[in-house]
Amino acid sequence: FQYLKRFDQGYNLDTFCYKAHSVEGSPAECLQQFLLHCGIADPSWSELRNFTWFLNVQLQDCEASVFCNPDFVQDTLQGF
């Protein structure tokens, strides 16, 4: 949710890193973001769950990768 919210607001996501147990927004706002970005017009709860699970795994991998660390790559992969 935090990544999607910042993406919609035009923030640079290269420098953002999720902090465990940090809470932002309301449950309704979170659901609205997921519905907006999941890519299905009328998703089931199962489809939303799969979307959020997949997105979470991908973002965790991205945060753990040295190639996505802005301090390591600096500006060599801008926009990647």
TrEMBL record:
Keywords (A to Z) from UniProt: Ligase
Q: What is this protein called?
A: RN213 ligase
- GO MF annotations, alphabetized: ATP hydrolysis activity; ligase activity; ubiquitin-protein transferase activity
Give the record's GO biological process terms.
negative regulation of non-canonical Wnt signaling pathway; sprouting angiogenesis; ubiquitin-dependent protein catabolic process
PANTHER family given in the database record: E3 UBIQUITIN-PROTEIN LIGASE RNF213 (PTHR22605:SF16), RZ-TYPE DOMAIN-CONTAINING PROTEIN (PTHR22605)
Per the record, the domain of life is: Eukaryota
Q: Which InterPro entries match?
A: RNF213 (IPR031248)
Any one GO cellular component localisation term in the record: nucleolus
